[in-house]
Amino acid sequence: MRHAKRGPKLGRTSSHREAMLGAMVSSLIRYQRIRTTAAKASAAGRLADRMITLGKEGSLAARRHAFAILKDRSLVKMLFNEVAPLYKDRKGGYTRILDLGGRRGDGAPVALLELVEKRMVALPKPPKPKKEKKEESPKAAPKAETPAEKPAKPKAPPHTKPGPKDQGKSFLGKLRTIFRRRGGT
User: What does the alpha-carbon distance between residue 46 and residue 113 come to, in Å, rounded to a whole number?
Assistant: First the structure.
């Protein structure tokens, strides 16, 4: 009997299911949303809520437990330092599931699993314009050429048609050799 065996089996062995759900929660923490089937989204959502609760706890034991599931130190650090503080005032319900309809190939119900609070991703700052230096006096030693100041080498003309040497290198050349072997044109 299956007494106290919570959660769906998802048609996988226990080790496969644990690895898959851990990978899904890792992706959810990294990208803030994932697209998957509805059954997998609900199972991964429960696990993600547990991971965020561990992140709010913040103890060493909680970090070790999170690492056992996420298997990536940088993700554990992100969970405890960036994601969990967003939910310090929330008692639960850290994820939401949005239905997206059926999958095109087999009609399986697809859902979007996402974090309720989104962390702001800092965009890299644009580089500051460099100030030009004043020209030095003619007595100063001449500067060595930098790679940016060297003249560019002239480019070879683009290859238009493969010649007899190039037939084996391009896709069309390979097709031509196949058809020649068969006796075609």
Answer: 11
Q: Cα–Cα distance between 16 and 92 in angstroms, integer? A: 27
**How would you label 13-52 residue by residue, b for 16+ Cβ within 10 Å and e otherwise?**
eeeebeebbbebbbbbbeeeebebebebbbbbbebbbebb
Structural element, H or E, at residue 41 = helix 38-57
pTM comes to 0.63
Per the CB < 8 A criterion, the answer to whether 132 and 142 are in contact is no
pLDDT tens across 127-180, in order?
Answer: 777 777 666 656 655 565 555 566 666 666 665 555 555 554 576 767 777 777
In order of their start, the domains of the chain are 14-115 (3.90.1030.10)
| Token pair in block for residue 128 | 């500051």
Dihedral over Cα of 31, 33, 38, 43: its sign: positive
Could you give the angle at the alpha carbon of 92 between the alpha carbons of 88 and 95, nearest 5°?
100
